[in-house]
Amino acid sequence: MSSPASSLLFDASDLPRIRANLDSPRLAELRATVFPADLPAREKFLREEVRLENLMYDMLKVRTHLEQAAFAYAVSGDAAQLALAKLALRRLCEYQRWDYFLEAGNKTIGLQRAPEATIASVLALDWLGDQVTPEERALVEDSIIRKGAPACFTTLYGMKHPDRVRGWTQDPRENMPFKINMARWPLILNSTNLKVIPICGLGYAAIHFHGRHPDAGKWLELARQSARAFAQMYGTDGSYDEGVGYWGYTTMHLILFAEALYRRLGIDDRDLINYPGTVRYALSMTMPTQQNLKEAVNFGDAGAVDTTVAAWVGRVHQDPVSDYVVRHIGGLGHWPAAIWVRPEAAGTPPGPELNDVRLSNDLVISRSGWTATDGVVALRSGGPANHEHADRNSVIFKVHGERFFHDPYGGGYSTMVPKWRLRFTEAHSAVLIGGQGHQYHDGSEGTNSSWAEARVTAFRHGPGWMTVTSDATEAYALVNPAVRLVERTLVYLKPDVLLVLDRVQLDTAAPVQVRYQLFNDDGRGAVTAAGAGFTVTRPLATLTATAHGVGPLAVRTGRMEFPANPGPYQTSAASVQEYAEIESAAAKAHTVLTVAAAAPGGAAAKLTVTAEPGGWRVEGTHAGRAIHARIVCREGALPEVSV
Question: What is the pLDDT of residue 605?
Answer without folding.
Answer: 75
